[in-house]
């Protein structure tokens, strides 16, 4: 009897791609006239060696806009591993609702910082001209000009699938070649996801081993190598994400995930500080898991 081969789901069946793309005004400009005077006064012979930079906005709202954009990008990168080298991230279907519920209010807050910045332009211009002295003669952009410089978007897509490739007008050989290239590109991106899983998991497990080694309590009660509760919380988090990031259904990744959930994630951090035997046990579990991370992505059919 021939055993039927089980077809594993493809990346496009398990998630989508997302990419956060932003741009905005910088605010720091080179004052050409002052730069020329500086170079002449200091006898600078190469133009690129010295210049005068002026912050014409010096806006807290603009700083908050940039900070909020950076935080949202960092959050996206935390839950969605890189998918290729073009800025796309792989977002598991199971995390789409969480992604939407987090990004929507964040995008609204980012938009508010932008509007607050644009509304304050008359004040910012007057302050710049007053505070910048002889450097306050640079052109100040209009609201319309600055509004065009802002853009915050999250692009959604889906992983490529060589089975979907339909190229009308090409020869069979050309279609086969292109289909192979799409497949190879997809495999490289999937390998990148597994590499990301390996790195993040290894980093968090190494931190557990390091903290267990360094935590010591002297007879007088003095503590060395203090660790925070987040040490265990980070293990809980990565164990949860590993389930969604395992897009190749690698049994080794799943085995490590289960071991983390059973042996480390349930540990109470307070008890861990009090119990040296528990610390030895947690350290051993972390080391065992760490030794298996190198096998991620190496399963055989």
Note down, in words, how this protein is organized.
It is a single chain. By secondary structure, the chain is mostly helical. Helix content is 57%, strand content 10%. The protein contains eleven helices and seven strands. The strands form three sheets. The chain has a three-stranded antiparallel sheet. Strands 2-3 form a two-stranded antiparallel sheet. Strands 6-7 form a two-stranded antiparallel sheet. Helix 8 (230-245) runs antiparallel to helix 9 (251-263).
Name its key features.
301 residues; mainly alpha; 2 domains; 3-stranded antiparallel β-sheet; 11 helices; 57% helix
Determine the strand fraction and express it as a percent band: 5-15%
H/E order of the elements? HEEHEHEHHHEHEEHHHH
Tally the beta strands: 7
Number of helices: 11
User: Overall pLDDT, averaged?
Assistant: 90
Distance between the termini: 19 Å
Short description:
The chain is mostly helical and 301 residues long.
Which helices and strands, and how do they pair?
Elements: H1 11-14, E1 15-23, E2 28-30, H2 32-41, E3 53-55, H3 60-79, E4 89-92, H4 96-119, H5 121-131, H6 143-149, E5 151-157, H7 172-214, E6 216-217, E7 223-224, H8 230-245, H9 251-263, H10 269-274, H11 276-293
Antiparallel strand pairs: 1-4, 1-5, 2-3, 6-7
Helix pairs in contact: 3-4, 7-8, 7-11, 8-9, 9-11
């Amino acid at each position: 009897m021939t055993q039927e081969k089980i077809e594993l789901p493809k990346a496009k069946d398990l998630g989508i791609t997302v990419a956060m793309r932003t741009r905005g005004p910088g605010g720091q400009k080179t004052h050409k006239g002052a730069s020329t005077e500086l170079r002449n006064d200091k006898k600078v012979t190469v133009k690129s060696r010295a210049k005068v930079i002026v912050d014409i906005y010096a806006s807290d709202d603009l700083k908050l806009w940039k900070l909020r954009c950076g935080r949202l990008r960092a959050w996206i990168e935390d839950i969605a591993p890189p998918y290729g080298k073009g800025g796309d991230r792989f977002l598991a279907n199971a995390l789409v609702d969480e992604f939407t519920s987090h990004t929507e209010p964040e995008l609204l807050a980012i938009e508010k910082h932008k509007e607050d910045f644009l509304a304050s332009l008359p004040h910012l211009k007057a302050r710049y001209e007053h505070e910048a002295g002889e450097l306050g003669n640079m052109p100040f952009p209009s609201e319309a000009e600055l509004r065009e410089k802002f853009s915050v978007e999250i692009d959604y897509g889906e992983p490529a699938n060589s089975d979907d490739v339909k190229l009308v007008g090409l020869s069979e050989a050309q279609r086969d070649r292109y289909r192979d290239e799409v497949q190879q590109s997809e495999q490289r991106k999937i390998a990148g996801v597994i590499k990301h899983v390996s790195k993040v998991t290894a980093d968090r497990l190494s931190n557990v081993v390091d903290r267990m080694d360094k935590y010591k309590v002297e007879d007088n009660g003095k503590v060395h190598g203090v660790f925070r509760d987040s040490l265990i919380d980070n293990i809980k988090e990565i164990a949860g994400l590993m389930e969604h990031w395992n897009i190749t259904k690698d049994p080794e990744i799943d085995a490590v995930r289960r071991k983390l959930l059973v042996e480390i994630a349930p540990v109470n951090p307070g008890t861990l500080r009090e119990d040296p035997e528990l610390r030895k046990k947690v350290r051993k579990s972390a080391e065992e898991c760490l030794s298996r991370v190198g096998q991620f992505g190496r399963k055989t059919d």
